[in-house]
Amino acid sequence: MSLCSVLPLFISTPPTTTTSKSLQRGNRNWALQRLRIVAKSKSDASPSSSTPTSLLSFLCPLLTLLSGKDPSQPRNFTLELALSSLASLSRFAWGKKSIAESSISTEITSELPLSLQLFEFEACPFCRRVREALTELDLSVEVYPCPKGSVRHREVVSRTGGKEQFPFLIDKKNGISMYESGDIVKYLFEQYGEGRSPSLGLLESTVFTGWMPTILRAGRGMTRWVYSRPDPPPGKLELFSYENNPNARIVREALCELELPYILQNVGEGSHRMKLLLNASGSKEVPFFIDHNTGFESGDCTTILSYLFQTYSTVIL
Fold this sequence. Notes:
317 residues; disordered N terminus
């Protein structure tokens, strides 16, 4: 999908003569109006007040220095998988299974128009919390990676929302644009959770363990690779994944470092999208990656990485 389809910030403020009445109703429409107002107030906040952004700005060069390797070069995948597995363990069960049990029998296809667009980057602990919520809610989303050094997607966020802060969610169906991971998670559960609440500790856990995957992975998925193509692929890339899967994390990191937009098909345990994965790959294992531009398909992490860096770089590897 073209980035031109990104919606501008939508604000709907009730007339002052009906404000008290709308507050008393407390219904779904009022909740959406409130969220729109929250999105606007967050956008108007001073960028300098964003401590997480400042901390990540400090960590970016430090972790890149510690990793010390070109992401396109051959890796020790035993070590890679071990560190990614530790990163998954540090987040316990968050982002592993779907809690939307009533949707298991729902017929799903990959051609459904997607309402949600998420601008984020893989190494960000606050973006991770949103992706964990998306796994729990069994929601697919268009992901627009915004690594440090972005040449496309960060500018879209600044133009659309008013500042460069992540995560940034757009829900085209409801005309919602919003920052702040906690607000985004609460909105997703209010709108798509069918009365459910986030799993215990999801909102609070970022303070205690949210940074562990970022540190354990030495900042992978934080900075744009210098030889990434400046132009996006013409057609869609599609990744079957769930947030806490160690192999899928490594692929998402590469997609972020190459700044490649993709359709994220969440297939956590109990997902109603599992049949779609089985039809595509013949297996329930993730990651499974499809490049609809070339017809490439693979469920092997090392093969996917090799393909991505060879296909979407400006140098011959």
